[in-house]
């Protein structure tokens, strides 16, 4: 069991490293891009973000449920020794979802103007057209990723994610720079920028096709412990019955994001708030380019954990290994809390200073919005993990219900809070926090009902929370002392050095408190590279 647990954590660790690298690459893309085409005086970044939201919604409809559903089926078939069924399942998935991706790409390209008008951003039409082919590429990636994740091999997924990001960085940023230097219109700048996303997806899909061909040749002789193979029709029915509810539950939030774009723009332009269309899109660009960009950082790490937990729990349940299910669930929830509690606290306390280190404009508003999103960070991470857990338990209907409830809260919150002139755009992160906490609480309730209990709250929540409180106190003290000593003006080099010092102290204090409070176990550290040596150095038993 220890070896299987190692495979689970190592797979999650690989994806976390890849996700972290992707976010670093993304920062090298987003930060100069926002400085180049964003801010209060330019709507181009808002158009880029709006087009990306349309693309994400179409992606949700066509392929989002595929990796999770396919990974679950592959993991279960592998646990039973049905290698022939694994191959047929992958072929069935490809025959369904790759043509669907192609259709969605065509619809998105031909209907770009209509989609842009629906989200109250008609000028985003060219950007939507430029990103349309990406849906087909991601459909190809989804099938391969589902297969490899079901095998608990996270390396191909990780590599493809890095390739996507590098394409966006070098090509997207290069095209944006070219467009700005040649005085292209805002619409053309947004379209040129988003083209980098499409080219990155093409490169990642080509890599995955090559990787798939290599895997196929190296495993041509299949040794199955069980020669049973269900008919293609039955496999297709099972795959769709799994993927459609997952898709719908994910699409609920993605479509809510689209409504979010329209509501933010519409409510900011309402008589009560009184912004022009250009001001509203510029404000939206600051919200997505600064606050949401950082909000997604811890989520990418937890998404890697959620991707790994689904096939692990599914295969353990298929093999009747309930002890492994319980252990995996406990480890996953504890790691989620350990990662996201300090991240959320850091958002609340250091949002403005962090943004001033990286951006030249819009940081005052961006800092307020990012600080408010700090309250949503742990909840959003719990949603990702608990959704995957419920799906692994075969209850794909439950996340659908909770996500729908959260979406309703999000839309109502946006409408009433953003329309309040005292809050305006600040209503968006507030409603996001309310949305995710509602979903997380509902999901945890269902997991407790299905399993009979949740992991101990003291080890899972209270110890990381105590370490986070201590870390926050250290940030407060260091910030006050250094600001008093240096009298640093916002955005100056001393101000940036103070922020770096606060982050360094926060990391050190949190790590020490985690160890002192016993929040990290030896088994957790053993699953890291050189884990045994690290555990011995830390005297973990």
Can you tell me about this structure?
It is a single chain. Helices cover 82% and strands 0% of the residues. With 541 residues, the chain is mainly alpha-helical. The longest helix is centred in the middle third of the chain and has 42 residues, at 277-318. The chain is globular and about 70 Å long. The two termini are 19 Å apart. Mean pLDDT is 83; it is low at 1-5.
User: Number of DSSP strands?
Assistant: 0
Overall shape: it is globular
Question: What is the string of SSEs from the N terminus onward?
Answer: HHHHHHHHHHHHHHHHHHHH
The helical percent reads over 70%
Point out poorly predicted stretches.
1-5
Distance between the termini: 19 Å
* Beta content: under 5%
Please give the count of helices. Answer: 20
Main sheet attributes: strand count, strand direction, barrel closure: none
Using only CA atoms, what is the Rg?
Answer: 23 Å
Given helix and strand content, the structural type is: mainly alpha
Q: Please state the average pLDDT score.
A: 83
